[in-house]
Amino acid sequence: MRKTIILLTLIILTLFAFAVPVQAAPTHKATFVVGQDSYTVDEQAKQMDAKTFIENSRTYVPVRYLGDALGAETGWDEKTRTVTVTLDSKVVKLVIGSKALNIDGQTKQMDVAPLIKDGRTYLPARWVAEAFGYTVRWNAQNRTVYVGPPVEIGTYPFPAKLIKLEMEVGSKKAAGTRPDGSKVEITLPEAPYLVIGTKDEGGGEGWFKKYLMKQGPNPEGEYFQGTDIYKTYPPLVDSSQDSSAMYIPFTAVAEAFGVPEQNMVWDGEKLRVYARPDWYGIFTPGSKEILWTGEWGPEKKAELPHPVRVKNGTIVVAIEGFNGMLFSCGSGDTLIKASQLGAPSSSGVLSGKPYLGCRPY
C-alpha cells in the first residue's frame, strides 16, 4: 500500500511539473474614444499619456494601454523595435513597420503595420485583442472602440422587428413601421447618400443634370421625377464605378429589422455578419466580394452589386445589397424571417427617399 501511495504521489508531481499554464478566459471590458487621453477598464476611468486616433479609416490605440486593459504585460525592445505583450502563457510580438504578428512563435499576417506616433506605439486594437480571445467592436456614432469578452451569437432566421424603414438623403432620422403597425423613429449613424458611377459616362456632369432637374422628360427623352434634395446633398461621383447606388449604414439598418447587434462585428477594418456562430460573411471596404465561411465549406465567395464603403468610420452598403441577404425573394437562406415586400424595395435614387420593406412569415 505504501509503495502504491508513493507511486501515485510521484505521478501527480510529474503531471504538475509538465502542466502547461492555461490562459484565463477573457473577462475585462475596455473602451477607447478617438481624440481622448482617457479610457475605461471595467467601467473605471483611467488616464493615458497618448490619444486614440484615426488614420486612413483605421482607429489606432496605444498598444501599452490596450495591454494594461487586458491585464497583460507590455515590453519594448528598442534595438529590434519590437513590442511584446504577455498574458498568462501567451506571448504576442509586433515589430514596428511590419505586418507580421507573432503569437507563441506562430506568424500571421495583418493588413496594417504598427506605427510610432509621439513616442508611443499604436495598432488597430483587433489584432492584439483577438490574439488573447477578446472581441473588438467599433461604434462610429460615438467614435469608440469597445474591447470585451466574446458574446453569444444568435442563430438565424431572426424575427422581423420592422416591416418597413423609410429614410431620406441627408437625414439621420428614419421612420420604422413595426409588424403591428405601430411607428418607431430610428436614428442612423450616417445619413443615406447617393453615389453616381460615371465610368461609362465620360464624367458626371450629365448625371448631375438628370438628378437636379425638375420633374419632366429630359433632352434624351427619359422621364425623371426630379428633386431639389441633391442640390442640398450633392451625390458623390465615382469614376471607378459604372452604375449609381444609394448607400445606407449596414449594421444600424440590419439591427433595426431584427439582426442581433452581437451578430455583426465591425472593428473598423472588416465587417463580420454572423448567421450563426459557425457561419459568417466578411465584408471588406472597397470590395464587392463577401467571403462566407462555415456551412458552405472553408470559404465561399459571393458578390454585392456595388462595393462596400466606409463613411466617417461607419460601414455603408448599397441598398440593393440588403435584399437577398436580409429578406427572402423566393429562394435561399436569409437573416430575417421575412420575404421582400412585393417588388424589390425602392433604392430612392430618383426621389432621394430610399426604403426597405418586408413581409414576415
Give a brief rundown of this model.
The protein is mainly beta.
Map the helices and strands.
Blueprint: H1 2-17, E1 30-33, E2 38-41, E3 44-47, E4 53-55, E5 58-62, H2 63-69, E6 73-77, E7 82-87, E8 90-95, E9 100-103, E10 106-109, E11 115-117, E12 120-124, H3 125-131, E13 135-139, E14 144-148, E15 164-166, E16 173-177, E17 183-187, E18 193-197, H4 205-212, E19 216-217, E20 223-224, H5 229-232, E21 236-238, E22 245-249, H6 250-257, E23 264-266, E24 271-276, E25 279-283, E26 289-294, E27 297-303, E28 309-311, E29 314-318, E30 338-340, E31 355-360
Parallel strand pairs: 18-21
Antiparallel strand pairs: 1-2, 1-14, 2-3, 4-5, 5-12, 6-7, 7-8, 8-9, 9-10, 11-12, 13-14, 15-16, 15-31, 16-17, 18-22, 19-20, 22-29, 23-24, 24-25, 25-26, 26-27, 28-29, 30-31
How many domains? The number is 2
Main beta sheet = 5 strands, antiparallel
Beta-strand portion reads: 35-45%
Which CATH class of the largest domain is shown?
Alpha Beta
3D architecture notes:
It is built from 6 helices and 31 strands. With 361 residues, the chain is mainly beta. The protein folds into 2 domains: 30-148, 2-Layer Sandwich (Copper Amine Oxidase, Chain A, domain 1), CATH 3.30.457; 164-360, Copper Amine Oxidase, Chain A, domain 1. The strands form 7 sheets. The protein has a 5-stranded antiparallel beta sheet with strand order 3-2-1-14-13. A 5-stranded antiparallel beta sheet has the order 6-7-8-9-10, covered by helices on one side. Strands 17-16-15-31-30 form a 5-stranded antiparallel beta sheet, covered by helices on one side. The radius of gyration is 25 Å and the shape is globular. The N and C termini lie far apart (70 Å).
